[in-house]
Amino acid sequence: MISSDPGSFRDPKSRVYRSGSRVLRGMRSTPEELRALLSANFFSDAVRAGTLVDSWLLSDEETLRAQDSIRDKGSWNALVEHDPLPVVSYPFEWPIGMLLDAAKVELQLARAALSDGYVTIDATPFNVQFVGAKPVHIDIGSFEPYVDGNSWIAYRQFCRTFLYPILLSLGGDNSVHREIAGNSIDGIDAQKCWSRLKIHQKYSPRTGLQVLLQGTADRRANKSEEQLESEL
Fold first, then answer.
1. Burial of 148 (0-12, 13-18, 19+ CB in 10 A)
2. What is the distance of C-alpha 28 from the center of its chain?
3. Which residues contact 7 (CB under 8 A, 6 or more apart)?
4. pLDDT at 232 over 90
5. Ramachandran sector of residue 154 (left: φ over 0; alpha: ψ -120 to 50; beta: rest)
């Protein structure tokens, strides 16, 4: 029996399923696109380094057999199998050191993927699990071919779910990141982060300026959306 994992319901590009001890992922990407991704240098390097879950494309025959047991099988063009994880944990359970390690891995993967023609389209702690003390990225649906000239689409999410909780925790409350992750999987926005920063953090070019600029950009974007809605 194949059952969907309730933790992957928000991902429009893929969904995780469990069949006994096996972990499968339905993908909107075509088999050809997935073969290119799985054979990319950055991908195989990260798998060998233990920072990316090992994954392989199911054969056409295996895919057809598995799809017979998947209710929403029409949504997916291919099925990938992952190495199963010994333990599943969540960001609101982690000490700050684990969140820092997860953030570093996400940045390392994003940089490596870009050098190989791919980009990460999301960057959230919920894409990371730990095998022992080692952070492992588990969502291969995060990777898409990079379009020249585009900015990093996942930057805002990285700030909200990694950078801002880390800044607030390092500011003196080493458990606030758990509070943020427990209250919302979307993290904390720049304006709320700014209001909770310590004075010395606000005046630091390395922290305060980062949050202030993003908060200004968010306000402008919100005003533009409100103006557009009023004109419709």
1. exposed
2. 17
3. 16, 126
4. no
5. alpha
